[in-house]
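Predict the holo structure. Ligand: flavin mononucleotide.
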Amino acid sequence: MGGMQLALAPMQDVTDLAFVRTLARIGSLPDVLMTPYFRSTRSTCVCSAALERLVEEHETGLPLVAQLAGSEPAALTRDARRLMARGVAGINLNAGCPSPLVNRHGAGAALLREPARLAAVLAALRAELPPGAFSVKLRLGWASAEEFPRLLEVLAQAAPDAVMVHARTRQQLYGGAARWSAVRAAAAALSCPVWINGDIDSPQRAREAAADSGCARLMIGRGAVRHPYLFRQLRGGAAPTPADRRRYFRLLIEETGRALEPPYRERGHCNRLKKYLAFCYAEMSAEQEWHLRRCERLADLESWLELEG
Ligand SMILES: Cc1cc2nc3c(=O)[nH]c(=O)nc-3n(C[C@H](O)[C@H](O)[C@H](O)COP(=O)(O)O)c2cc1C
């Protein structure tokens, strides 16, 4: 699959410092990383220490784009400036998050319901950011994909440097199937690169998503947590062996421990690991899942992940 560009999709509390450091150690990295969203409000930028550390300490050598969720142009440009000064490769506007908490403030996917506000936010960020540094991640619409052409007009007017489309509406949340073919209209309407996102979890699905959407740029979230060697495979690398899987889990345990702020307890370490494991249970037996969900000691977790030997 030559010529394909790959990005890790932002996933709050999942695509974090420990996860990206682990991807680097197993040699399965995308071309670009994106942080989960920093929430930009009128009074402040709500960002956890963990997000700040992802920006400062990811150690992968890859360009890292910081994502902002907000609906106030002045707040967004203030936070974009601050993050750019810290050396991020660019700023991404979150126009896709379906969380009621975020949407209540007019941010995330709620911007799709208010094209005039979306236009104002885009114009402010475009004026703030240098060429190459501004991208937008959105869904096909709030209630219906019929909203997409109008949203594309707003995007075309603002001229961002890249657009990532999660091929679902807000009302679909994470259910149903992503409609990759609906994203073709974006490539036709915009002069910037368009990334396809949603439900890409194997090399076969990657080829289908690229063919259906007409995009050679793929953004992958859950698929990369469930199948951490997916980026390596998409670059022509071998499918992972059981030994590769065990190596991944060992390194993830180590990196999760390294990323935790001391003092932390073993139970906290196990709970952190369960955030990633939640995406892997589908590949495991019901018994393994039942026990892993309840582990409070690392030794038990290692045993149920069958890491001995
Ligand atoms: C747990 C979780 C957290 C997410 N956090 C974010 C986020 O902070 N910003 C964002 O733009 N999208 C977020 N998303 C959406 C993903 O980036 C992506 O658009 C979506 O999961 C579809 O792609 P996938 O099927 O490759 O995972 C999140 C998704 C999940 C499941």
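The chain has a mean pLDDT of 96. Residues 242-259 form the longest helix (18 residues).
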